[in-house]
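Reposting from the mailing list since nobody answered there.

I have sequence plus structure tokens for a pair of proteins and want to know whether others read the tokens the same way I do. The first protein:
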Amino acid sequence: MSGKSNNTQLITTAIAAATTGAILTYTALKYKSSKNTSTTPPPPPPTEQDVKTSYIYEDPAHDVIISQPLKRTSSDLNQGQAGDGRLNAVEGAGRTILFPHSHEEKMKRRIASRVAVEEDNMTPRNSVTVRVPATSANFGPGYDCIGMAVDLWSEVTIERSSTFQITAEGEGADAMPTDESNLLVTGVKAAFDAAKKPVPILKYHVVSRIPYARGLGSSSAAIVAGIIAGLVLAGHRLPCWGSEALLQIAASIEGHPDNVAPAIYGGIQIGIHNGTRWVTERAPCPAGMQLVMFIPDFIGKTSSARNVLGPEISREDAAFNISRAAWLIHALCMGNLDNLKVSVQDKMHQPQRGKALYPYLFPMIEAAEDAGACCGYLSGAGPTVMALTSGASGDIFTQREKERTDKAVAKAMMSTAKKFGIQGRIVVTQASHEGARVLKADPPFSSDIFTYRDEV
């Protein structure tokens, strides 16, 4: 009886001790929580500066741990932006990750990380020489939006002077305006306007290797060369990533981006106006592709070529061109030159211009394709006919001719020209992956510490 009583007493004592311990533990935790709450303010929401990531720069000082995704507003989502100003970012996992295609956001962060700009960047120059390529616009169905840089170059030298003067040599030198109506002057003025500086008295000299008024972008080359030269002379630089300011100036003068975009950036460019600004992206240029051009001796005026086009097109013709433009870009992306023949077909401008202005156009394209060309089309507004061939590898003068078709295509195009009584010449070249660039400047950009290409 006594043992049973002792067991009961022990159980009661254990329960009481456990209860007391639980109460003490709860009280201690509650006290600690209330103390932390009263003494430690809540962390502020992360700012744009706080969330700067070291993903690009590997800068530990700017690393930040994000435990929860930052909120986005409906307006941010409509604009394709995150509420904290980051584009195309994955949030969480301890840091912000930028996708490979987030080029403009990466550049925004690079600019923000630089607290100073070298004074040399703002130095006005006394003279500058700019090299700019020819371009072939439209590429068949890509009316006013697709263009390609061509490996034919003009050089423009502009220097400060006491008297205004324009001199020229080479292609179209006799027809080139020597007053302020010259598009070189227009480009220079636009550059100085952007720099908010008065235009000084300048002397211009042009070494032209781009055929004048032949559908190879001579006007756009003058505009782009003038803008670039003007910016260098003024000591002014423009933002590119996120705004493409140089493209905005050039396209606003030209009215469309299909020539000026490849003249600036090189390669094959697809340009549009997105409702806010002009934008352009590069399409791949297939390896081994050559350009065989028949360049007539007569000039073609863009205004006359546009006047033969009707103000409207049918739904059927619109669908035709949309499908061909999509097929063209796919062929370029896949490097499938065999698909170019169908890709460059068009119903918006080539049939109308061929009928009214260039009766040799389609017979010449057919002859080129029969001789082995991948395709043929009217370059720009004409009168040049462009044929594309395949098979080039390295320096073509060390390659067996039977591996290529450029010579056979050239002969076929010239034979067609003779049948129509058209005088002209054949030029064989390739696309240029490079756009306009500065060749020489005074004072130079190079220094004793480092040297730019060609010691510019």
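The second protein, same order (residues first, tokens after):
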Amino acid sequence: MDKISFSFGAAFGRSAADWCSLRAKYEAAALEAQSWINGTPFGTEGHGWMALPDCSVAQVDETAEWLRGYDSVIQVGIGGSALGNLMLNQALLDGFYNETEAKPKFYLADNPDPDKTRSIWERVKDGKVALVGVSKSGSTAETMTQFLWYRDEMLKKGQSDRDILVITDPEKGIFRAFAKDSECRVMELPASVGGRYSVLCPAGLVTAAALGIDAAALLRGAGAMRDFVSKETDFAKNPAMRLAALHMTHAEERRPMSVLMPYSSKMAYFAEWYAQLWAESLGKEGKGTTPVRALGSIDQHSQVQLYTEGPDDKFFTLISIKDHGPEAVVPNIDHEALKPLEYLNGQGIGAMLNLEAKSTAAAIVKAGRPLVWIELEKLDEETVGALVFFYEYLTALTGRMMGVNPFDQPGVEQGKKYTYGLMGRSGYEKDAEEVGEWFAKITADSVEAVYKELRAGDETGIGDRK
């Protein structure tokens, strides 16, 4: 694995804090958090992600080979059962994978929008389809509605439960019961691994491996990063400790937003994955900072004006990649009208992207905003595995230092209960009543906007405008 570099020289912005004060204030808490993460048995609820780098990929590879026998794979899942897959595929596959000759094609059915659900099916219905359901409980409404719909469509076209894989809890839940009473395949989603920390277990690895991603290399990178951040006890040399302390400091100084801005189209879903990991792990008891997704260089043209001249309420992390792969080089100008662009002759587009990353970072720092710079050598399986594990560790470390449980999500569970009640699930009748009470409050003061075209001379009195 190549190195990942963390640069902290501009990490304070206009803050009066410095590394001496930060170390004095947070070093003991960071070391305690490190000891807690490392010392808690990995079988403890929420802590299983620490053991994932050591897992064998034999079953993952065997199941991936089975999936390669299909024309298309549909995976149904949401949140941690979807974002990790999207992140891995975008980072490590061709940007338009489904438009290549490669098989199987891959579709992620996450948001339960009927247009998307049907659009996916229209693209796969004429071939042999594998259905992968990912849910620890098998009761998540968004996942199960789509699972049931796709399964029905598959059965109607002559396929069977033998074409289904469920990844679920080892012992309990609806999916586990379905696996026992049907001919579908089943893999374990470790009971001690939460959804948003599950990308390095079968939930994230199986379909990635089926598409050609090296699962073993992902785990090697994750293992190398685990060994580094979990064993390094020198605050100054451990980037996870330093970043956790910085997030704490900037939150206390009323910078409640954490902007993650990678400079690569292949990392857009990494920012999405990070947003769920950070928000769901830390946003509790009135604490936490709000993750903001940005993408370079697109958001130079939509967000950087706010970042440099808006309120000083954000802490920035920019991620740059040294080697973007095969370069696209601008040819020499051959048209008179284009002569002003001759400075671009021979320039690489990837090289320009890296220069833009540096320029944006410099502009943000010049404006007095705090920023950390992360640089990757290249984007391959080991690097992605290492970066994923780093952010999981950073999140858990920060949560412990904040005094919250980084592995539960009580606010999410309330919304699930409300949905169960509204959809008529037994035992959730009071939740349905409660939604009705709260929604009555929401709609108590409403205004309707008329958007149909009005005829000239109608009751508005506006008439024709010439």
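Reply #1 (J.P.):
I read it the same way you do. The CA atoms of residues 437 and 443 lie 10 Å apart.
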